[in-house]
Design goal:
By secondary structure, the chain is α/β, with parallel strands linked by helices. The chain is built from twelve helices and 17 strands. Helix content is about 35%, strand content about 20%.
Length: about 400
């Protein structure tokens, strides 16, 4: 089928829950792909930060294929070696004690919410179940994670939402301290807010979160769904701040393109869930874990994260030379670009027409290229961006 036929066939059968762009991706390698008509694109979005090793990485694809030819699924009544290897690697890389396997960031965050509330209930009984999240946060699209998301635009249509959430302005220490009371069981945050505008939290605010949490036995939850797995130049974004949360959630780039979500916990929080209190049919799927093992091995290899930071500086330097670029936020290969007098949503469409795939976040252009993107691909993408912005 050509692109038009694919789009028409898809749209005739699938609910229109996304404002899709008219692109039918067909094949790819690293940060380059082709559509069904043979047109080529440079990918600065990596499937919203999911294709961490780019398109069709050979080692990743070979591992996934080999696992699929061996055993593709075991129920959670049983064990499998591929998941066991992944679990051991991930806990070592994060310094956490154990984790729950799911399939997405929303699932991971649902699990974190359940752990926080059960932890507090087990210790203090009823009435201590409020979770503080941040304004402009994004934690998922289930009813509970939508409720946790600190953006009014998501609190529509699906009433009633889940109670027990308060929203603090990011980086406002006074507001945080005012919100903390005896009903609070956890504080949940993204070290770099992705969907909320690629905004980084300040070291002072992070310190304030962990100080008040330690004083009042409040759990800290770091949502690393978008900013984790090497995206910011550290394996976890919170490593930039020198803190260790009680709970960490991960997804997106962890699977390299296959669905995975994990909720990691440390200390007493790691002991909260017991048989029957949580579950996921596909959690720990061996085919997904085979790909995820390749991601972990690559991202943790010597010099890899240094290369993420070096590419980040290279991109930022080039972008700041463009007159209409007035600012860049974010860390590593998670960047938000502020533009003078140019609509990010309009620019996204113009980039697609020229062969560059980008994202938006609020009023900013957002870049989440594969962590393995080559400098040649970076230059090609930047050339397209310049050709549009410097007219």
């Amino acid at each position: 089928m050509n692109s038009k036929e694919i789009i028409e066939k898809y749209d005739s059968s699938v609910m229109h829950t996304y404002g899709r762009l008219p692109l039918a991706e067909q094949s790819g390698s690293c940060a380059s792909c082709r559509d069904a008509d043979g047109a080529e694109y440079i990918d600065f979005g990596s499937g919203i930060g999911t294709n961490s090793l780019g398109f069709a990485d050979k080692e990743w694809a070979d591992a996934v294929s080999a696992q699929a030819h061996t055993i593709q699924h075991t129920s959670n009544y049983y064990y499998n070696e591929t998941a066991a290897i992944f679990a051991s690697r991930l806990t070592q890389l994060t310094g956490m004690d154990s984790f729950f396997f799911g399939n997405s960031g929303a699932e991971a965050n649902e699990c974190a919410i359940k752990i926080a509330r059960k932890y507090s209930h087990d210790r203090y009984g009823d009435g201590r179940n409020t979770i503080i999240t941040l304004q402009n946060s994004f934690h998922g699209r289930t009813i509970a994670t939508l409720s946790a998301t600190g953006q009014d635009v998501f609190h529509q249509h699906f009433f009633p939402f889940v109670g027990g959430f308060k929203y603090c302005p990011a980086n406002d220490i006074a507001a945080l301290n005012e919100l903390v009371d005896d009903s609070v069981c956890a504080i949940m945050f993204e070290a770099v807010q992705g969907e909320g505008g690629v905004n980084s939290l300040t070291p002072e605010f992070i310190e304030a979160i962990f100080t008040v949490a330690a004083e009042r036995d409040i759990l800290t939850i770091a949502d690393e769904v978008q900013c984790g797995c090497g995206r910011t130049g550290k394996f976890l974004a919170v490593e930039h701040f020198g803190v260790t949360p009680d709970i960490v959630t991960m997804a997106k780039g962890l699977g390299g393109g296959l669905p995975i979500g994990v909720c990691l916990a440390k200390g007493d929080a790691a002991q909260v869930l017991t048989p029957g209190t949580h579950g996921s049919t596909f959690g720990g799927n061996p085919v997904v874990c085979a790909g995820a093992n390749v991601v972990l091995e690559r991202v943790s290899s010597e010099g890899f994260l240094d290369s993420v930071l070096e590419k980040s500086e290279y991109i930022k330097k080039a972008l700041l030379e463009i007159p209409c670029v007035t600012g860049i936020s974010g860390m590593g290969l998670m960047l938000g670009i502020t533009l003078d007098g140019i609509s990010a949503s309009d620019l996204l469409k113009r980039c697609l027409e020229k062969g560059l795939l980008v994202l938006t976040a609020k009023e900013k252009l957002r870049l989440l290229p594969p962590l393995t993107i080559s400098y040649e691909e970076i230059d090609r993408g930047l050339d397209i961006l310049r050709s549009i912005l410097c007219k």
